[in-house]
Amino acid sequence: MLVIGLTGNIGCGKSSLSKILEENYFDIIDADLISREIMNNSDLLKEVFDTFGDNIKRNDGTLDRKKLGEIVFNDDKKLIELNSLTHPAIKKEIIKKINNIKLNNKDIAIVDAALLIEGNFLDLVDKLVVITCNENIQLERIINRDNITKNEAMSRINSQMSQSEKIKFGDYIIDNSGDREKLIYDASKLITHIKEKWCE
Predict the structure, then answer these.
(1) Which family, according to the similarity comment (predicted)?
(2) What is the value of pTM for the model shown?
(3) C or N: which end of the chain has fewer Cβ atoms within 10 Å?
(4) Do the annotations mark residue 13 as ligand-binding?
(5) pLDDT for the residue 181
């Protein structure tokens, strides 16, 4: 079975591309969804609260992701600390989902993960698709989507590996600086490439 990684920085449209691929009957493993699900694990959640304090805990005992984000996106050391807690659990779950897809005799699985490179998940994939976009467009998208300030958006962008660095790891690059129609067109070209070049 071919396992394809899909990655890209915040605001570049990775989730939009992932959705288009899912609509074209590809099996998607969503690392962001997994990271939310693993926070239901009481042991891991306790470790996160112990590390970052009870001010990130809501009244009902659940995690306030916004408050946690404010801490880690402004402090590289805190982000590394969070990732060291969560990444092993995320990786384990991704492997489990890849194996489930394989058991169903599928030909392709796509791992959708923003931190696929930084999280040391590259060994799980055979090919890597990197989605990029113009940095001004990226900034505008994040501010509008997340309703945050320019400085907050910049903190999130700067917390990730640069787009130029990510591109070096890619087997296939999509520039998503255009509109949705252009992304749909580029997705169809990617699908053709997968079927004709990578599934031989």
Answers:
(1) Belongs to the CoaE family.
(2) 0.93
(3) C
(4) yes
(5) 98
